[in-house]
Automatic annotation (TrEMBL):
GO biological process: carbohydrate metabolic process; defense response
Signal peptide per UniProt: 1-23
Domain X8: 364-446
Record's protein name: glucan endo-1,3-beta-D-glucosidase
Molecular-function annotations in GO: glucan endo-1,3-beta-D-glucosidase activity
Length: 488
């Protein structure tokens, strides 16, 4: 092979291996919905908004196939339910890595940078059921990555809830929960040795929601009339205070300089009095402005988080509402990829761009039959809302107060759309009827579901995006040149 041909081939390999430009802001892509936008459409949405990082809660094959060649940096997840098996068997860890990482990195071109080992496994409400599995699972998966020659590129992290640490009153007094001190020291040592960040989920909204004494302005970023004074440092928002509580806790176990990434942070748009579009936009835009100015926090001035993953990309109507109705409404986009409010992520677009080519079901809805009275719909209403999402009808929801008959229509339609517009699902013993006139009113949107039997067309080279196609076009011309020169 000639020198010029070798140089061309080296250029090709560099193009295939070079990571995309770093982007500090990413999103959490959850899939607990019966109205799932096809993954290729979601990837196009992410790319249109120049979002370069995405955090998954599992390793869904359809999602990973759509991410192939996209250029996005990806975090996949070992679910809490998988921790015991992976912790107890190196062979199980090998199989997990082979099935969920190696096959995509090696064949599909998915840029997997992180594996999340569990999701908030130390959460207080779990009562320690996953705690003993975390470090053994990390050890086994790390060995599996070594065998697969991926350990230098794919890093292991453990997304932790902020309840893993605490403070009596001031950030500088931050410490890990007593029962977690040993395991957090082991985790920090593991992360430090591998060059991975400590991943934490911070939710000022929950602090406000759970405490009537929490100053509302302290949850946002415009300053507070109730700042927290901690020696020479003054805290004007809960995010900085929480972040530095973790910094202090890490310092007390000898890892005060460990990089920190924010695995989840955001604000819901309904489901509670303090959850609305205005508050969500104010919080998320304030957060983005804070990240973009690289100001850092009092204990880490000039050092912003390693990454910030907004929670979340979409609303997920199948999430548990045990914490509150707001759990289904964290998305910066509605379930179908339509932006809820203007938001500048600092990635080149002044506002969010909507998803395109969403495969909606036909424009028809199920409503309460106006010819029937509502005396016998209570059980039907209960059934519909137990299966579909009616949280927007409750106080703090966008459909609160629309009236009794409209409430019934909303519930009927939610169930009807969840059942993919099956005509039988709109019967309700004659109390429902199908209409082609949109019954939405004001801010209350009666949804039309998504036809998830359809998938968005991918590019003709089979990679799903221009990046991958471009690489293979380059490969073609290199091959043709080498063939012409007699090198192949």
């Amino acid at each position: 092979m000639g020198a010029f041909a070798a140089a061309l081939l080296a250029l090709l390999l560099a193009a295939m291996a070079a990571p995309p430009a770093e982007a500090a802001v990413g999103v959490n892509w959850g899939t607990l919905s019966s109205h799932r936008v096809p993954p290729p459409v979601v990837v196009d949405l992410l790319r249109a908004n120049r979002i370069g990082k995405v955090k998954l809660f599992d390793a869904d094959p359809a999602v990973l196939r759509a991410l192939a060649g996209s250029g996005l940096q990806v975090m996949v997840g070992v679910t809490n339910a998988e921790l015991a098996a992976v912790a107890g068997s190196p062979a199980a860890a090998d199989a997990w890595v082979a099935q969920n990482v190696s096959r995509y990195v090696g064949r599909g071109g998915v840029d997997i940078r992180y594996i999340a080992v569990g999701n908030e496994p130390f959460l207080t409400s779990y009562q320690g059921q996953f705690q003993s599995y975390v470090i053994p699972a990390m050890t086994n998966i790390q060995q599996s990555l070594v065998k697969a020659n991926l350990a230098s590129y794919v890093k292991l992290v453990v997304p932790c809830n902020a309840d893993a640490y605490q403070s009596a009153s001031l950030p500088s007094q931050g410490v890990f929960r007593t029962e977690l001190t040993q395991i957090m020291t082991q985790l920090a040592a593991f992360l430090s040795s591998s060059g991975a960040p400590f991943v934490v989920n911070i939710y000022p909204f929950l602090s406000l929601y759970q405490s009537s004494d929490f100053p509302q302005d302290y949850a946002f970023f415009e300053g507070s009339t109730h700042p927290v004074v901690d020696g020479p440092n003054t805290y004007y928002n809960a995010f900085d205070g929480n972040f530095d509580t973790l910094v202090a806790a890490l310092g007390k176990i000898g890892y005060g300089q460990l990089p920190i990434a924010i695995g989840e942070v955001g604000w819901p748009t309904e489901g509670a009095p303090s959850a609305n579009l205005t508050a969500a936009r104010a919080f998320n835009q304030g957060l983005m402005n804070r990240v973009m100015n690289n100001k850092g926090t009092p204990l880490r001035p000039g050092v912003p988080p390693a990454d910030v993953y907004l929670f979340s990309l979409f609303d997920e109507e199948q999430k548990s509402i045990l914490p509150g109705n707001f759990e289904r409404h964290w998305g910066i986009f509605s379930f179908d990829g339509q932006a809820k409010y203007p938001l500048n992520l600092g990635l080149g677009n002044p506002v969010l761009k909507n998803a395109r080519e969403v495969p909606y079901l036909p424009s028809r809805w199920c409503i309460a039959n106006p010819a029937q009275n509502l005396d016998n719909v209570a059980n039907h209403l209960k059934l519909a809302c137990s299966m579909a999402d009616c949280t927007t009808l409750d106080y703090g929801g966008s459909c609160y107060g629309i009236g009794e008959k409209a409430n019934v229509s909303y519930a009927f339609n939610s169930y009807y759309q969840q059942q993919k517009q099956d005509a039988k699902s709109c019967d309700f013993d004659g109390n429902g009827m199908i209409t082609y006139l949109d019954p939405s009113m004001g801010e209350c949107r009666f949804l039309v579901g998504i036809d998830d039997s359809k998938s968005s067309a991918v590019s003709s080279c089979g990679c799903g995006c221009g990046v991958c196609c471009g690489v293979w076009v380059l490969f073609f011309w290199v091959f043709m040149y080498l063939r012409m020169m007699g090198s192949v």
